[in-house]
Structures
1.
Amino acid sequence: MRSLRILVLLAVALLGAPAFATSFQVTGWELGETVRVNFLGSTRNFATAQFHAVVDGVAGTSFCADLSQYINVGTYSQFGAYDPAAAESQAFAYSPRRRFVWAAQIADHWGNEIGWLSSNLGVTRVQAITGIQSAIWEAVYNSGFRATSASMSAGAWSAYQYVLGTSYSGYGNTLLYYSRTRQDQLFTPPVPEPSALIVFGAGALLVGNALVRRRQQA
């Protein structure tokens, strides 16, 4: 399963074309607030949330990158996995114009750090999720999405401004999962535990040493 995940990431990174996931499963979500914003010239209400998702057997988190469609708990097969930078040049990014790199950076940075944001800003998890999701929507739609302090609670507004004001570099393993019939998602796999990284590093070192010895013997 891990090797399949690696192959998907390599295909997306090298080709810039979608590598269709075996499945995209939404297992649940943690709700934020409902925000009232200006979207594409109209005042609209949108419910914010962080989704719990499983992609090809890998459990992680995701955020909405599409305000034109919906998604519910269930398993979906026709999601294309896109590198966020490559996705910006695709036809589906232009109706209306959507940008995914900054949004993916936000999702990657905060997807596993809601507790930190909540604790350090003195806001609730609900408010932290509201701020993160609203910031992702602004990153995706640029001037097409506009929130004000009246759009959400004071704590959510504080989180929203903090997330937008943070500097980011790269978006890790976060990918855009696009569907023509379901809401697009920015999926972030979990961060490996330090112990897992140590084991991986030790294994890589053993393999490397074995290869060196084999070459010396040859």
2.
Amino acid sequence: MALLDDMPVMLVAFDNATVSARPSKWDMRRVLVVSSMLALLGVVQSSGLLRIMHHRMQLEIGPLQTAMFMQLVIAGHLLLFSTRSRRLFFQPPFPEWKLFTAIMGTQVFAALMAANGWLVTRISWSLIGRIWLYNLAWLFVVDLVKLTLFHRSDMRESRQANWQKWFHSPLDAFGGRLGKLQKAG
């Protein structure tokens, strides 16, 4: 699985993501909150699929392992589409063609591995399709959570900026000019 992740991750550097006009400063609180929440969603997403396939579909251990392999490959790469922008994943700017091709190419290769039983237990194309649909539905959930977290973080920053502006403003009704008027008079 690590080999399937390497190519898309290397090509993230060439993506068409929007760049800030001025230097940006890392907001570590935002980075940690968003990454932790997205990681938690990933665990819930994978656990949910595992539960469905084990309890409802009653897959044996071999096909279950292959299905979870597909889950991790698909979910991890779709997360790249979500996290590359502060907007919805399907809004411009679209991914650079090299990144898109690398992600889709590794998805096709992983599906061929699973369908043909290369290094993993063989599973049906139908199951691969269901795993894809499950992950596409979760992509919308992940994107909405990401947008909500960014919105909340932006609101927190704007409230903090307003508070700081108020804190540093003069206390007199003349906007700080009273002291200047008294010195001149």
